[in-house]
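2024-03-11 09:14:02 INFO worker-7 job=invfold-0412 stage=load source=structure_tokens
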């Protein structure tokens, strides 16, 4: 039986679409004029501050991906209009109020693209992908953070060759991430010094630890935050949805074809967390395990196939020595990883702010002139 698509569910999902320059989601900013549902086809009326907003395609794209991630939705039609002056001024007062209310947000900026690397089962290479994607994006010139959301099963410090410890700044009381390969890294593995500390941490709830990492870490302005998800994810997914509504998912799978079964699990994960799936990466493809599982899963989920990474010793040795394989210019895996990262940067480009800062200043000036 097809899932029932409700108005409430679509609105909830749309809360994950941010207008990065206004620092709020499109629902609270009153940018959703209407939503109509006809069987599996959802029509969204989207009102932008001005018609030629440079963020238009980004917001439309995000809206589309979000809504398509709702089970039962087959197609999305977006009708974009420009706000009237009155609507714009209402929106600006909401935006200003929000900026004030948000005195206690996470340290992750709403303009940061958050990518959770997840899978339908364990041991498929999530952590390996996370480090390589993070380092790959940093090498493209982006500001990148890597958060090890595998609180107890951490493998990021070893794979990144990160040996520094996390220290709190005496003044701000914020935890400073350690840096490796140009990426800001945070992991429980960088705190736990002794068995005793480990036990103390174990006493903390999983979601509490994650909350600390999002609220108490001085992430700074990041283009991307990569999250290495633990296997079998319930609690962590929930905590993430609450704190990072802009998170989206890259699914890693192996070449063996069990597409339908994995798809059900992934779709369920995505539904519970309202996270759209950016695309699928097939890992460990080649003669041993074959290939094809990734494209099949992508088809099954109706999302882009990002690429396949061969089964290659350079990934294992890169993980063991803390020098991610993506930096290896001679290996086949390194080349495949670089291609996959290029694809990810195309599918989920960094929020483009440069062009908007000036515009928003002008908008506020206009409104204030109008109000005077
Ligand atoms: N393409 C590859 N070729 C060869 N070995 C690989 C490849 N990808 C990952 N591995 C190896 O497979 C093992 C599991 O990888 P990894 O730890 O990244 O998986 P995971 O999905 O994060 O696991 P878990 O679910 O336990 O967190 C590691 O030893 C890693 O080096
Ligand atoms: Mg892992």
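2024-03-11 09:14:09 INFO worker-7 stage=emit residues=372
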């Amino acid at each position: 039986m097809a899932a029932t698509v409700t108005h409430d569910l679509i609105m909830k999902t749309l809360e994950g679409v941010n207008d990065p320059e206004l620092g709020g989601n499109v629902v609270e900013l009153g940018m959703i004029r209407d939503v109509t549902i006809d069987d599996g086809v959802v029509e969204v009326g989207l009102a932008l501050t001005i018609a030629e907003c440079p963020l238009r395609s980004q917001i439309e794209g995000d809206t589309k991906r979000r809504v398509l991630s709702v089970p039962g939705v087959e197609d999305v039609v977006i009708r974009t209009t420009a706000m009237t002056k009155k609507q714009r001024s209402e929106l600006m007062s909401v935006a200003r109020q929000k900026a004030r209310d948000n005195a206690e947000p996470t340290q992750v900026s709403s303009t940061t693209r958050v990518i959770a690397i997840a899978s339908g089962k364990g041991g498929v290479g999530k952590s390996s992908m996370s480090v390589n994607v993070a380092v790959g994006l940093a090498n493209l010139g982006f500001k990148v953070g890597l958060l090890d959301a595998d609180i107890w099963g951490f493998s990021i410090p070893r794979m990144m060759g990160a040996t520094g410890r996390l220290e709190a700044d005496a003044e701000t009381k914020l935890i400073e991430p350690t840096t490796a390969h140009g990426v800001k890294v945070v992991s429980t593995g960088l705190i736990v010094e002794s068995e005793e500390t480990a036990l103390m941490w174990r006493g903390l709830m999983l979601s509490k630890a994650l909350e600390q990492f999002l609220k108490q870490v001085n992430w700074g302005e990041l283009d991307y935050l990569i999250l290495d998800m633990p296997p079998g994810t319930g609690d962590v997914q929930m905590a993430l949805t609450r704190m990072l509504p802009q998170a989206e998912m890259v699914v890693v799978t192996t070449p063996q074809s069990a597409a339908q079964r994995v798809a059900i699990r992934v779709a369920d994960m995505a539904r519970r967390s309202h996270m759209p799936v950016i695309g699928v990466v097939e890992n460990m493809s080649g003669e041993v395990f074959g290939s094809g599982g990734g494209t099949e899963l992508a088809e099954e989920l109706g999302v882009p196939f990002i690429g396949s990474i061969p089964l290659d010793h350079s990934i294992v040795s890169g993980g063991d020595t803390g020098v991610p394989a993506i930096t290896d210019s001679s290996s086949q895996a390194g080349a495949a990883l670089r291609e996959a990262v290029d694809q990810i940067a195309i599918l989920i480009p960094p929020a483009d702010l440069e062009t908007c800062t000036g515009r928003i200043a002008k908008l506020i000036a206009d409104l204030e002139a109008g109000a005077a």
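2024-03-11 09:14:09 INFO worker-7 stage=report msg="The mean pLDDT is 84."
2024-03-11 09:14:10 INFO worker-7 job finished
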